[in-house]
From TrEMBL:
One GO term of the biological process aspect: tRNA wobble position uridine thiolation
Pathway: tRNA modification; 5-methoxycarbonylmethyl-2-thiouridine-tRNA biosynthesis
Family of the protein in this entry: Belongs to the CTU2/NCS2 family.
Its biological purpose: Plays a central role in 2-thiolation of mcm(5)S(2)U at tRNA wobble positions of tRNA(Lys), tRNA(Glu) and tRNA(Gln). May act by forming a heterodimer with NCS6 that ligates sulfur from thiocarboxylated URM1 onto the uridine of tRNAs at wobble position. Prior mcm(5) tRNA modification by the elongator complex is required for 2-thiolation. May also be involved in protein urmylation.
Single GO molecular function: nucleotidyltransferase activity
GO CC annotation terms, alphabetical: cytosol
Protein name per its UniProtKB record: Cytoplasmic tRNA 2-thiolation protein 2
SUPFAM superfamilies named among the record's database cross-references: Adenine nucleotide alpha hydrolases-like
Keywords: Cytoplasm, tRNA processing
Domain of life: Eukaryota
Coiled coil: none
Length: 461
């Protein structure tokens, strides 16, 4: 049997992707070119990433000013996609330095959002990564850390609660509140995951707003975008697909200061993972083992995920589905992403009604619709069996929870007012204890409250 050779350079091949054999170097180049194509996909992003020189329209000073004001924000989870995205950004900077006489076109602020208990470990891991790979670009790539807890720091709160008629009320709540309290209130893992996602997204955007970034680069691979899309549909959040993935417009919720970009949207997760092995990034990943499906020589033991389907969140279930089909049916994945790209935003019922929880635009009155298909009137127990079941319930924790909820409802409805909530968030709140969360109000004060951060210091040798 002949050894397969890289089709591009003739070296021995190590990867098989899209029916083509690659050596490590050519494969990394191939993935990198896909990302860079997105980074040059329209004039707005070209202005950010290109190295500007003195020319007919700008003086040397103006060119310098434009280069140094081209700042982008790259959230990093140290999963495979965001880590690969950062690596390609670093390569782009290296290439600019060598071809443009030491000049570069842009600056990257890497942002890590952490839970208090993870901080030390995360910081060590980032120091290792930075020392191993990004030392030459310390001027252009800086690492910042934000505690997820800061989402609640110094905020004005409201209590969001669903009552029997599926109307939502809110009231000011001055109790000190924190992330631990919030997560303890989420027995349902999907709801917990949703709320954490909102928190991270809002912190990242606020950070970009406060530091004048021109774009937020999200690491999502094509596979991740497909499973986000399907999960949003399943969770009743289909109306928000367009606004979440749109990279053609400035984010108007943040004064039009930045755009969002998904530079790895043409790259499958298995390809991102193969890049990790090819580039030696696999040892830097946190809480994630890169798949070796495309490697000719397998690396890791086949991992049985061991998680039962019924314990999975909706996102995990959809991810499993796409993992299973990625090998033979990867065209399904690109079809989902291309379709999501084409979705326009639905008509607004009235302008500028935002969901109090996820900040998405509201297009349907989800609560009214639910109300119209739901019967909330109770009926008394009749048979002996009914009565036994009732007594059992009466003695149980469920009844105590119900009493707590009624108590809460009473206090909120007497002082509260209606709060807009999208359909998806009505469902999310249904998975939270007492169908109630304490949540920061989105106000200018929230937006402008400076986020406290930890910055990884430049290393000196
Ligand atoms: Zn090659
Ligand atoms: Zn919502």
């Amino acid at each position: 049997m002949t050894e397969p050779l890289c089709k591009r350079c003739g070296e021995p091949a190590v990867i098989l992707s899209r029916k083509e054999h690659f050596c490590s170097r050519c494969f990394c180049k191939f993935i990198s070119s896909k990302q860079r194509k997105q980074m040059m996909s329209d004039p707005y992003f070209q202005d950010i990433f290109k190295v500007m020189h003195q020319d007919k329209v700008r003086s040397a000073e103006q060119a310098d000013a434009q280069n140094s004001s081209s700042r982008i924000l790259a959230p990093l989870s140290l999963g495979s996609s965001s880590t690969v995205m950062l690596d390609v950004l670093n390569d782009t900077l290296n290439e600019q330095k060598s071809t443009q006489r030491g000049r570069t076109g842009f600056y990257v602020d890497v942002l890590l959002c952490y839970l208090e208990s993870e901080f030390q470990d995360l910081k060590n891991r980032v120091e290792e990564l930075s020392a191993a790979r990004y030392r030459d670009n310390q001027e252009n790539i800086k690492f910042h850390f934000i505690n997820l807890e800061s989402f609640f720091d110094g905020q004005e709160f409201e209590k969001l609660i669903i009552n029997d008629d599926y109307l939502c009320s809110s009231k000011l709540d001055s109790d000190p509140y924190n992330l631990k309290d919030l997560l303890e209130q989420c027995p349902n893992r999907s709801s917990r995951e949703d709320l954490l996602t909102f928190i991270i997204r809002r912190l990242v955007k606020r950070y970009a707003y406060q530091h004048n970034h021109k774009a937020i680069l999200w690491g999502h691979s094509m596979t991740k975008l497909a499973d986000e899309t399907m999960s949003l549909v399943v969770k009743g959040r289909g109306e928000h697909i367009n606004s979440l993935f749109d990279s053609s417009q400035l984010d108007q919720d943040y004064s039009g200061k930045f755009r969002h970009l998904y530079p790895l949207k043409d790259v499958l997760l298995s390809e991102v993972d193969a890049y990790c092995y090819s580039a030696g990034l696999d040892k830097h990943l946190v809480n994630y083992t890169a798949q070796d499906t495309l490697l000719l020589q397998k690396r890791c033991e086949t991992k049985a995920s061991g998680k039962l389907i019924k314990n999975m969140t909706i996102n995990e279930m959809v991810r499993k589905y796409f993992d299973d089909i990625e090998g033979d049916y990867s065209n399904v994945i690109s079809t989902v992403v291309r379709t999501a790209d084409k979705l326009a935003e639905p008509k607004l019922i009235e302008p500028n009604v935002k969901c109090s929880l996820c900040q998405g635009n509201i297009h349907t009155r989800g609560s009214e619709w639910l109300q119209s298909i739901t019967i909330n009137n109770g009926c008394p127990p009749e048979t002996q069996e009914d009565k036994q079941l009732y007594e059992k319930w009466y003695e149980s924790n469920l009844r105590r929870e119900r009493d707590e909820y009624l108590e809460l409802m009473k206090s909120v409805s007497s002082q509260g007012e209606d709060a807009p909530l999208c359909y998806g968030c009505v469902v999310t709140l249904g998975g939270v204890k007492n169908k109630c969360v304490t949540w920061p109000q989105s106000t200018d004060r929230e937006l402008n409250q400076t986020l406290e951060e930890f910055v990884l210091a430049d290393e000196e040798d």
